[in-house]
From TrEMBL:
Feature: compositional bias, Polar residues: 74-83
Superkingdom of origin: Eukaryota
Bias type Basic and acidic residues, positions: 53-62
Region Disordered, annotated ranges: 53-83
Protein's name according to its UniProt entry: Mos1 transposase HTH domain-containing protein
Length: 83
């Protein structure tokens, strides 16, 4: 099962006013080893308590994918200048 689908199930448990222990028990019973861990459930409950409504990944800062230049991938030695 996809991690986004598990997030929806965690949100369902949150909206049903179950605590994290009940949510973990329910997910383990139905999905076994593929269920998310305790810390993941706690983290998402905290997000929902803060008012988050969507279950998508948050935007992340960092190097954009467009910064990768095909020439540097072919020959990484060319990407560094030597003194």
């Amino acid at each position: 099962m996809d991690k986004k689908e598990f997030r929806v199930l965690i949100k369902h448990c949150f909206l049903m006013e179950e605590n994290t222990v009940e949510a973990k028990r329910w997910l383990d019973k139905r999905y076994g080893d593929s269920a998310p861990g305790k810390s993941t459930i706690i983290d998402w409950y905290a997000e929902f308590k803060r008012g988050r409504t969507n279950t998508d990944d948050a935007e992340r800062s960092g190097c954009p994918k467009s910064a990768v230049v095909p020439e540097n991938i072919k020959n990484p030695q060319n990407s560094f200048e030597r003194p």
